[in-house]
Amino acid sequence: MSIDFSLYLASSTYIDSDHPAVRARAAALAEGAVGDAAIAARCFAFVRDEVAHSWDYQRNPVTCRASDVLQHGTGYCYAKSHLLAALLRANGIPAGLCYQRLAVGEVGPPFCLHGLNAVYLQEFGWYRIDARGNKPGVDAAFVPPREQLAFPVLAPEERDLPEIWPAPLPQVIASLTGHATVQEVAAHLPDVEMLPLNK
């Protein structure tokens, strides 16, 4: 049975892959690359390394829409995942959004969602990638089929959420669009209610 990738290739409000600037950057990143994995690796590296993580760099404005992340060169992990999905979709590569629930500090509570991506590669299928940006203690990479994400899931209350979403979760949009500064977003990070794991 074939997979319907239409939702994972579509342009939308926050993953605006049809925006002229997004399309131009996607084309530039793909130039000379052979195959979907090579193109995806370039898009991943660009978002991970060239777009500043809002909190790491304490950089405003708060961005959400992919084209705004590209324009301002900054975004929280969620916003960076919107841009990466848009660049991949603009290159005809199916991409979605994934989330982890992680402790905000070293250990929780509180907890918050962390945003990352899944890309569909012809050779490997769905493959999760995390372009939040590396720093000491964080070394995310594009090495399919092996996942190398930014953060491990450690505590019982933390989770790898299994869904691959075609659009951002509402609470993520609310956090990014409802607060004026990166500091305000940090005080209102999105989360999800989790049922206890069976012991």
Give a brief description.
The protein has helices spanning 6-9, 20-30, 36-50, 54-57, 66-72, 77-90, 170-177, 182-186, and strands at residues 52-53, 74-75, 95-103, 111-121, 125-129, 141-143, 146-148, 159-160.
Write the layout of secondary structure elements.
Elements: H1 6-9, H2 20-30, H3 36-50, E1 52-53, H4 54-57, H5 66-72, E2 74-75, H6 77-90, E3 95-103, E4 111-121, E5 125-129, E6 141-143, E7 146-148, E8 159-160, H7 170-177, H8 182-186
Parallel strand pairs: 1-2
Antiparallel strand pairs: 3-4, 3-8, 4-5, 6-7
Helix pairs in contact: 2-6, 3-6, 5-6
Can you walk through the features of this model?
It holds the Pfam family Transglut_core. This is Transglutaminase family protein. Residues 69-133 form the Transglutaminase-like domain. It comes from Janthinobacterium kumbetense. The protein has 199 residues and is α+β, with helices and mostly antiparallel strands. Helix content is 34%, strand content 19%. The protein has 8 helices and 8 strands; from the N terminus they run H-H-H-E-H-H-E-H-E-E-E-E-E-E-H-H. It has helices at residues 6-9, 20-30, 36-50, 54-57, 66-72, 77-90, 170-177, 182-186; strands at 52-53, 74-75, 95-103, 111-121, 125-129, 141-143, 146-148, 159-160. The chain has a 4-stranded antiparallel β-sheet. Strands 1-2 form a two-stranded parallel sheet. Strands 6-7 form a two-stranded antiparallel ribbon. Strand 6 and strand 7 (146-148) form a beta hairpin. Helix 2 packs across helix 6 and helix 5 (66-72) crosses helix 6 (77-90). The termini are far apart. 43% of the residues are buried.
